[in-house]
Specification:
The complex is a heterotrimer of chains A (284), B (124) and C (211).
Chain A: E1 5-13, E2 18-26, E3 31-35, H1 42-49, E4 57-62, E5 65-66, H2 71-76, E6 78-81, H3 93-101, H4 109-118, H5 132-143, E7 150-154, H6 162-175, E8 182-187, H7 191-196, E9 199-204, E10 207-213, H8 214-220, E11 222-226, H9 233-237, E12 239-245, E13 248-253, H10 256-263, E14 268-271, H11 274-283
Parallel strand pairs in A: 3-8, 3-9, 6-7, 7-8
Antiparallel strand pairs in A: 1-2, 1-4, 4-5, 9-10, 11-13, 11-14, 12-13
Chain B: H1 13-27, H2 39-46, H3 50-62, E1 66-69, E2 73-76, H4 81-106, H5 110-123
Antiparallel strand pairs in B: 1-2
Chain C: H1 2-14, H2 16-32, H3 38-63, H4 67-72, H5 77-108, H6 119-142, H7 145-172, H8 177-183, H9 185-207
Helix pairs in contact in C: 2-3, 3-5, 3-6, 3-7, 5-6, 5-9, 6-7, 6-9
Classes of the chains: A alpha/beta (284), B mainly alpha (124), C mainly alpha (211).
């Protein structure tokens, strides 16, 4: 299969928001970070992939197959972790697990027990007694225990502390040791992805800004700092986002070479982080 | 094997990796046939992306320093023997120069050094 | 299919609220309905118990907000709908057994003489339940939970009123038209047809719904 996930010209209309012409592709064995500010359309896109929302037009293929025609087959191979993980509150972890397990053809109890142990969860605990972090770990344990090839995560780390988020990152690294597994991870906490993501798709206001390998993105963008006297109309055009203060300017550009050539030593060029790119692109 | 990458350096990470591995090969710390960590293992250990380590390895392969076999991983390629020999000779020369300088400081002469060398060759 | 039955039964056994309601239903109606209408009492208990068994899984998914999770599992919406329609019969069976045992115990205790198994009432209850479900399910699959719950409550209270009404009528005139209609084989056939149509409608509605 060429791509494990392929979204083409996806469109969904709501009353006051439209997801317009969304396209991106992920090859097997890699991690794609799906970033964007709140309300950009990340969750909507994931819900469309999982067929929880009905698309207006466009094509979505998972494992090379249409996501609606082969819905069952595909979902059998997808592990999902959502930002709000809702389970039957009165059930214990164990009972809930049994319900979930019955839906999957390749459920692996050994794996599940391994993760429950590793995450320090008590199988007899009732779901309603679990904290948000524990629920998320439980979701992850489930998502990883049925031999899923694609793990889809929708803002799994929002509301969780940095220590916890780092733990999740390490787990993801373990998952990705298997080159047949891929991860699609949406988040607005870009620092989580800075290290591990192979590809970055950036969405804003319902449209894809770019979908590119992370290294290329970080190579193409840079933060430029200098004195405001250097700014004129043409120079301003070279910036995606610009912040001017009485003591100088700071901006994001993707014409780094041009900046170097034009201003040489008069400016300071620094690496842009994913957060910089997101913030400047959104704010302007 | 030691590979350290810096996030704050301006040098792209994949370049840092390929440079360090190249260095180890040239210095002889890595020799022909030595197995390198898999790109995924390396990505995890360094906490960087798989694509980055892959790029580093691709570069090294292009330049002939390593070879990758499907399913077996990557290992140090047989280097250009002449080149390696010359490099190693140069290193030996440098080290011998050090010995000569130290000896002169100590007041030892050529014969005495030769004797020490003969014993060392025998024992090694 | 079996896995959803497994899910609903697991939920049923673990939820105390549902058990309590089911326990209260019988004595509650016993108190309300007069002694002459024991057969209609049986009818009401059957319908009420079945109603609780059918609607509780729906409400679990609403209160726990688990709809997204269930629909992310490898299962088609069509299957979810078909299962629900089929499960109604399983629940009717459970209700018959439950009502039978409960009422038999009450009978044995000598307090009141009740009907614990009435074939002709069962014959009336089943198509009646099917008709009610045929209206309820499409509403539940299509509308927002709040609205659906209002419709459910409406239909259920309608049932009670209706049953009371019939109970009154059947004293004076033993062969009341409506009562007869309920038990006729024509009604059963109509009920089956409506049930199937309702299922098709529900499938269509649910398949197009945004969750």
């Amino acid at each position: 299969m060429d791509y494990i996930l392929e979204v083409s010209n996806l469109r969904k209309e709501f009353k006051d928001f439209t997801l317009n012409d969304i396209s991106f592709r992920l090859e097997p064995g890699y991690i794609m970070g799906f970033i964007g500010p709140n309300g950009a359309g990340k969750s909507t896109t994931i819900k469309l992939i999982m067929n929880l929302l009905k698309k207006n037009s466009g094509e979505i293929k998972v494992f090379g197959k249409d996501h609606i025609k082969y819905e069952k087959e595909i979902k059998d191979r997808i592990g999902f972790v959502y930002d709000e993980n809702y389970y039957y509150e009165d059930l214990t972890i164990s009972k809930m697990k049994n319900i979930v397990a019955s839906f999957y053809s390749k459920w692996d109890d050994h794996r599940f027990n391994y993760y429950i142990d590793k995450f320090d969860l008590n199988p007899k605990a009732k779901i309603k007694t679990l904290s948000k972090g524990m629920k998320m770990k439980f979701s992850l344990a489930i998502a990883l225990s049925h031999n899923a090839e694609l793990i889809i995560m929708d803002e799994p780390t929002s509301g969780l502390d940095p220590v916890f988020r780092r733990e999740i990152l390490e787990i993801l690294y373990d998952i990705i040791q298997d080159e047949n597994k891929s991860i699609f991870f949406s988040t607005h906490i870009t620092t989580d992805l800075e290290k591990i993501a192979d590809y970055i798709t950036f969405i804003n206001k319902g449209e894809i800004v770019f979908s590119e390998s992370k290294d290329k993105v970080l190579e193409n963008y840079a933060i430029v700092k200098g004195g405001t006297n250097l700014l004129n109309r043409d120079v301003r055009k070279k910036f995606i986002g610009l912040r001017e203060t009485p003591v100088g300017f700071e901006g994001l550009t993707n014409s780094v070479d041009h900046m170097k050539k034009t201003f040489g030593n008069q400016i300071l060029i620094e690496k842009a982080s994913l957060e910089d790119i997101m913030v400047y692109s959104v704010r302007g | 094997m030691k590979i350290i990458v810096s996030n704050s350096s301006n040098e792209p990470i994949y370049e840092q990796i390929s440079k360090q591995i190249k260095g180890m090969i040239l210095k002889g710390e890595l020799v022909e046939g030595d197995v390198l960590p898999s790109i995924r293992r390396l990505a995890k250990d360094l906490q960087i992306s798989v694509i980055t380590t892959k790029r580093a390895y691709d570069e090294l392969e292009k330049e002939g320093f390593i070879e990758t076999m499907q399913g077996k991983g990557s290992y140090v390629a047989g280097q250009n023997k002449e080149l390696m020999r010359e490099k190693k000779l140069r290193i030996i020369e440098e080290k011998l120069l050090e010995v000569v300088e130290e000896s002169k400081l100590l007041g030892l002469n050529y014969e005495e050094i030769k004797e020490i060398l003969r014993i060392l060759f025998k024992e090694a | 299919m079996l896995r959803i039955i497994n899910k609903d039964l697991t939920l049923m056994f673990s939820n105390n609220m549902q058990k309590i309601v089911m326990l209260i239903i019988v004595p509650m109606f016993l108190v309300i309905i007069e002694a002459q209408h024991m057969d209609w009492l049986y009818f009401l208990i059957l319908v009420s118990t079945t109603y609780i068994l059918i609607m509780t899984p729906f409400s679990f998914d609403i209160t726990n907000k688990t709809t997204s999770m269930i629909n992310s599992f490898p299962i088609k919406r069509k299957e979810i709908v078909i299962y629900r329609y089929l499960s109604v019969f399983v629940y009717i069976l459970i209700a018959i057994v439950y009502a039978g045992v409960y009422l038999w115990i009450i009978n044995k205790s000598g307090l009141i003489n009740v009907d614990y198994f009435n074939i002709s009432m069962i014959k009336r209850a089943i198509p009646y339940i099917m008709m009610i479900v045929s209206i309820m399910f499409p509403a539940n699959f299509r509308f927002e939970p709040r609205l659906a719950q209002i419709i459910n409550a409406f239909l259920y209270s309608g049932t009670i009123v209706f049953a009371f009404n019939l109970a009154q009528r059947s004293i004076g005139v033993s062969s009341d038209i409506i009562v007869k209609l309920l038990g006729s084989s024509n009604f059963i056939i109509i009920a089956i047809i409506v049930y199937i149509l309702s299922m098709i409608l529900s499938i269509r509605l649910y398949e197009h719904k945004d969750l």
